[in-house]
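Slack export, channel: ligand-projects

TW: morning all. Re-posting the request from yesterday since it got buried. We need the structure predicted with the small molecule present, not the apo form. The ligand is adenosine-5'-triphosphate; the SMILES is in the block with the sequence. No rush, but it would help planning for next week.
GE: picking it up
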Amino acid sequence: MGSSSIFEDDVEIIRNADLFTEEHTPAEILCRDDVMQDYVNALKPVYKGRPPRNAFLYGDTGVGKTAATKYLLQELDADIDSRNDDSPGDERGFTYVRVNCQNLAPADGTASSYQVAIALVNELRDGETVSSTGYAAREVYEMLYDELDDIGGTVLIVLDEVDRVGESDTLLYDLPRARDIGYVENTRIGLIGISNDYTFRSNLSPKVRDTLCETEIKFPAYTAAELEEIIEARAERALHPDTYGKEVLSLCAALAVRNSSGSARRAMDLLKQAAEHAENEGHVPIEPDDVYAAKEELDYGDMVESVADQDQHKQLILLAVARLDADGRTPVRTKAIHAAYRRLAQAAGDDPLSQRGMYNHLTRLDMLGFLHSYQNNEGLRGGQYNTYELSEALTVAQVRDAIAESELPLEDVSLDIDRILRDAGLLES
Ligand SMILES: Nc1ncnc2c1ncn2[C@@H]1O[C@H](COP(=O)(O)OP(=O)(O)OP(=O)(O)O)[C@@H](O)[C@H]1O
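GE: finished. pasting the full token output, ligand included:
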């Protein structure tokens, strides 16, 4: 008898799960010929040892901006290496460095030029970490330009999610001009900004826009047919043969077009999740029902993520409404939400906002679709007031999962809801 483990499934569909991860750079960028040609043209000066062009890439989430960038920079690096081998005495230095600005920004906020500069220094120093506090901004920029100047040749700096760099765009202004201003002497710097926020470009100051957007490359959404081709190529390498059919690939592609604006990431995630679902259920091949189950699971997780992405006050408010909801007390008035929120904020070691301060967050949560509000009118005596409940898109369990993910110490905080409502004057004593 072979070895058996409780972790083993009767069937195995996924051959190489690494190919589904975010770190994986695809062997080929499919269905992007026009865009790739523009991108190649923008990078040609680097290959030729001429001053680099700056570029701004934009398009919805999951349409291949990062994948195309990683792929082309690896190609460029390899081609310059082999060119250098062929032309001793005329070598061209080339380095690229990539930072995702979203990871540097707090939830709901933006990263400062200072934080981006520190992240770049750490990337360039490869392990030697500079702490994110304790330096004057000027010192950090000096470190960065010293580091860049030591490298020489051409350095391309890729700022992914560049829209998460805050108002002060010092770095976006200075980096492409560093050589002209005299911050560096030996190195030519090119900047590649990537964003899925269309308004970002128009909000840039004209000077920054003119340099960063020297070349603009738009990544359009994929069609269902294109997505099918992309995930089919991935499935051939990542899944075992005969474990999936065309119908399943088409369904993943169609759902990604319909619900996720043509995102290859979504199509890929649906396929992977459906494969895991089929493995757990013990059947081969993957069936359409596995894809629908995958969609449910992904939708559930997305909602949890978007709650966890909110700032702490908003999460506490959502938890307050969720607790009231779990107790059958919603729709509920602002006063009661505030009382529950205050208790939770204190338990989390946070200074609670006043009811007025909290109200701003509450209306925002309504606008964002997490909550649903009702206007109540009790005539002359009662006046007008709003009540709130979780929107149909959000469940109590999702809010709880999000709070657990944010590691707020609130799992075991008990709320005496009757008392809260009584204190808020909403329950007769
Ligand atoms: N044309 C393509 N060929 C092969 N794989 C692709 C293609 N486009 C996207 N992918 C894959 O889809 C996933 C998402 O792509 P990518 O990360 O490049 O999206 P993005 O546009 O950078 O999204 P975001 O703005 O959210 O960062 C990745 O796994 C990537 O490998």
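GE: first-pass observations. The pocket of adenosine-5'-triphosphate is lined by residues 26, 29-32, 59, 61-67, 196, 230, 264-265, 268 (CB under 6 Å). The chain has a mean pLDDT of 90.
TW: perfect, thank you
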